[in-house]
Amino acid sequence: MAATRLPRPSPVRFALWLFLGFAILVFDQVTKFYFEHNFLPGESLPVFRGFNLVLAHNTGAAFSFLADAGGWQRWGFTGIALAVVVAMLVLLRRHNNQKLFSLALTLIAAGAFGNMIDRAVYGFVIDFLDFYWQGWHWPAFNIADIAICAGAAGLVLDEILGVQKRK
After folding, report:
1. 45 - beta bridge partners?
2. Are 6 and 97 in contact (CB under 8 A)?
3. Is 28 a catalytic residue?
């Protein structure tokens, strides 16, 4: 059985993935800027049943984990995000010929970088998407969070498809 050969990584593909990541980053930062400058913290605008736009400041990690940890988490999470972005870019440079894997890496890097900017500049992450059902609210989130979650799902899917292909 002959192994399937993937095209070699290329600087052009790497640049295209970087461009996509930059576009996601810009979209994330523009939406956060809008909400930070047009809403007061905690202000909520109902959009439809089950969804509000709200300005929330998250000093912790996902779901406000360690939000009340005394301040060290600002730079700790900034450092972790920087390490994640660097790791994703190194992997992307080496594997930019693998579409799903590269898309997943790009999404994670763009999202991590977007939230890292917030932490470094403001000391918190700006969240504004609020989904709820009856009295239960999902923690508010943003475009960067969507990118990170979609990228993580992409990594899982890429691995599942790779395992199936190797069978």
Report:
1. 53
2. yes
3. no
Q: Give pLDDT, residue 41.
A: 94
Residue-wise pLDDT for 114-151, tens only, equals 999 999 999 999 999 999 998 898 889 999 999 999 99
Whether 28 and 111 have beta carbons less than 8 Å apart is answered as yes
Catalytic: which of 28, 118, 145, 158? Answer: 145
Q: Which of 157, 63, 163, 155 is nearest to 107 (CA)?
A: 155
Q: What's the token pair of residue 150? A: 């979609």
Is the Cβ–Cβ distance between 134 and 58 less than 8 Å? no
Radius of gyration of the chain (CA): 18
pLDDT score of 66: 59
28, 118, 127, 158: which one is catalytic? 127
pLDDT of residue 113 exceeding 80, the answer is yes
- Distance, CA of 61 to CA of 53 (rounded, Å): 20
Question: Distances from the Cα of 13 to the Cαs of 20, 56, 82, 87, 118, in angstroms?
Answer: 11, 37, 23, 18, 28
| DSSP helix/strand/coil, 19 | helix
CA distance 66 to 5: 45
Q: What is the pLDDT of residues 48-106, one digit of tens each?
A: 999 999 999 988 666 555 555 566 777 787 888 899 999 999 999 999 999 999 999 99
